[in-house]
Design goal:
162 residues; alpha+beta; 4-stranded antiparallel β-sheet; 38% helix
Length: 162
């Protein structure tokens, strides 16, 4: 269960890619082609009802992803599908991944440690390292991801709050 949670906790970034394509050669997010991220777009309006934030901590970052109450079930289902993708990647299968997922996988391959816990409406993940150089890379990942998330948010249609 914890192994699956650790894999699934990588919602929007989420993820352990072994593909050799450099992250800067692919779109940061690719919800159409990324084997992991496309699971977040299978339900209409799903992305508008997810909340994703990364926060720097001394030795890495904390990632929190939650779903609005009406979308928690869909989030858990998407996480289960992402678990299956993660298991395929861990078994060595080559799958198309976006820049975000490639970058996250590269951080894990460099030795970043990941710890995840399930929340009632999402999940939280702590990604850390004792290596100061890798901590700098983890912090740079946060900066890049939050900047790309802001662009995505600005381009995404807003949910109707009436």
């Amino acid at each position: 269960m914890l192994k699956k949670l650790l894999i699934g906790a990588l919602t929007l970034t989420l993820l352990t890619s072994l593909i050799s394509i450099a992250a800067d050669e692919t779109p940061w997010y690719d919800f159409e082609n990324c084997a992991m991220c496309k699971n977040l777009t299978l339900v209409p309006d799903f992305m508008k009802n997810l909340h994703h934030e990364l926060v720097k901590v001394d030795r890495g970052f904390l990632m929190v992803t939650t779903a609005d109450p009406g979308f928690v079930k869909q989030y858990k289902e998407a996480s289960a599908k992402m678990n299956a993708v993660g298991e395929k990647l861990m078994a060595g299968e080559q799958l198309p991944m976006c820049g975000c997922c490639n970058a996250f996988g590269a951080l894990l391959m460099k030795g970043a440690k990941m710890e995840a816990r399930e929340l009632k409406n999402g999940d939280v993940m702590l990604v850390t390292s004792d290596d100061p150089a890798l901590v700098q890379e983890l912090h740079a990942y946060v900066d890049k991801d939050m900047a790309e998330m802001a662009k995505l948010g600005a381009a995404m249609p807003k949910k109707d709050t009436k």
